[in-house]
Specification:
This protein is mostly helical. It has one domain. It contains eleven helices and no strands. It starts with a helix and ends with a helix.
Length: 157
């Protein structure tokens, strides 16, 4: 991953991501240990939070994140990792800056992360609860919104 972070042009970044994709697609299910133990999530998230990044690179990073998060063990590892959750929360906040990529990413992450099992993992950290709030439509109550409401009533008393 250190070598990939030195890529400074779009073509090189896409070539580096192609290698990650090839490994992720052809690794045996549950055998993505190399990707789980490396900083691949941080690497891919760095492209999403960089508002000056090429949209093609961002789209490729989104696709790779979706591919990696479909593996249960990789997803659990990521959802317990602040180095993944913090950039994810930042990315979901960039709606005004990069509407197309953020809208696509929000839809993608909603489909993957908003399950009962994943919500319980996300609810374990403050950043995870922030991610839930950004992914959940306002009409659907979440545990973090309920906790905020309880905190507000407690402060008022």
């Amino acid at each position: 991953m250190r070598v990939l972070s030195r890529y400074d042009n779009t073509k090189m970044k896409l070539a580096g991501m192609k290698r990650i994709e090839r490994f992720a697609r052809f690794a045996l299910p549950g055998k993505l240990q190399l990707l789980r133990d490396s900083n691949v999530f941080e690497f891919l998230m760095s492209f999403l939070v960089d508002t000056k990044e090429d949209p093609e690179v961002q789209a490729k990073a989104l696709g790779l994140l979706a591919l990696l998060l479909r593996d249960r063990l990789s997803r659990e590892k990521a959802l317990q990792n602040e180095a993944f959750l913090l950039p994810l929360a930042v990315f979901l906040s960039l709606g005004e800056v990069n509407t197309t990529v953020v809208a696509a990413g929000t839809e993608l992450f909603q489909g993957i992360l908003l399950t009962e099992e994943n919500l319980s993992l996300l609810n374990q950290t403050r950043t995870g609860r922030e991610v839930i709030e950004k992914l959940t439509p306002a009409s659907i109550p979440t545990a973090s919104r309920e906790m905020n409401a309880i905190e507000q009533t407690t402060k008022e008393d």
